[in-house]
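hey so i finally got around to running the thing on that chain from the lab meeting. sorry it took forever, my laptop kept dying and i had to restart like 3 times. anyway pasting the input first so we r on the same page abt which one it is
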Amino acid sequence: AVDMGAIVAPVQLKRIRQLVDQGIAEGAKMWQPSWACPTEGYFYPPTLFTDVEPASTIAQVEIFGPVLVEMTFRTPEESVALANNTPYGLAASVWTENINLALDIAPKIKAGVVWINSTNMFDASAGFGGYRESGFGREGGREGMWEYLKAEWEPHAPATGSVRKRAAAGAKRADGRPKHGVLPAIDRTPKLFIGGKQVRPDAAYTRRIAGANGRVVGEVGEGNRKDIRNAVEAAHKAWTGWGKATGHLRAQILYYIAENLAARADEFAARIDAMTGVGKRSAGREVEASISRLFTYAAWADKYDGAVHNVPIRGVALAMNEPIGVIGMACPEANPLLGFVSLVAPAVATGNAVVAIPSERFPLSATDFYSVLETSDVPAGVVNIVTGGTMALAKVLAEHDDVEAVWFFGARDGVRMVEHASASNMKRTWCSWHERDWTDPRQGEGREFLRAATQVKNIWIPYGE
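ok and heres what got predicted. didnt touch it at all, straight out
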């Protein structure tokens, strides 16, 4: 465009001048036209900065004015690194004569919208929104509509909290022994699972796990802030490769996990029964549902793709579903194995790495599950399990700046805590205090979970002479 309007407000004009002065003070070279702007109104002349360091303030912040910051690069990889070296990510433009290169670069840029050889193109059919501190969520497109919708069952669901009471009330036994005889006879304390390894908790404390009859059925490690930090580091290290893996590869690994879990179905059913006292038949059904859920997301892994929008230009807009990154999740108390699998599987299937807090009261099925992960070709760090107090650990995840999203399924006070703790770092949250029937596929699996595990990037591609 050759026309330039006024700045939106005096306070913004002042902000632009401050940033320009700061850029000059930090060593960048400023270029402005010789003519002057109108003296009436809030105008600022078009400004170009060269010789800018990547760490300069003007290269890091959103100026929101007619100021262009120029930095040179030698390789496409270096250009991506420069573009992503900012806490913001609203929109970007890629300019090149090579469309193959443009389509390679666009998905790598951490921005919600990428225009190729164009800029500032909008349409209601294609969502618009940012990454990182530019905010999350989308306006327009199908993805924008989901922000205003709820599942049919949710308004009628009771609040989480009655699960423990019902489990305790229906779990009385005549004796203190588990109904199955396949549990290991040797006492052991399960460790945390971080970076593909079983590790002892930092504080060396343990938490006793009592069964439905009050007898101790095991102990787990008491994770703390340092354990969460180590798990997040391991998850980030794994995500650099896992996020780029093909959907076919992720599907094959999820199928493998399901097969290995099926081979130990009786053992897991016995563990669930010993903890919850739901009975052999109900425990068996939970394991079967967990296996089915893994198969479901294995099937989704290479099929949850994007869309091509018919936008009003001579071209198209590609909507790509991208993994969020590292997701921290607090799993529900009810159905300790199925609830765990129902959250971890969709996140992993779509290319995320996970730091999971299993059921606080019934964590042993999740700690048994990591031995299945160890034998199923899951890359180290893709799934990390930290046991302990749900509220304390979830708060650490919500406050952690390197966790891109937090899922919390629990009581309403926990939801409030996670929302407040994550506000300062603009973290995505998916919280539910409604009690779900995890055995019901309408509530426990499907596109709702896949949408929460991905973010949509719209790439606008004009074509023609």
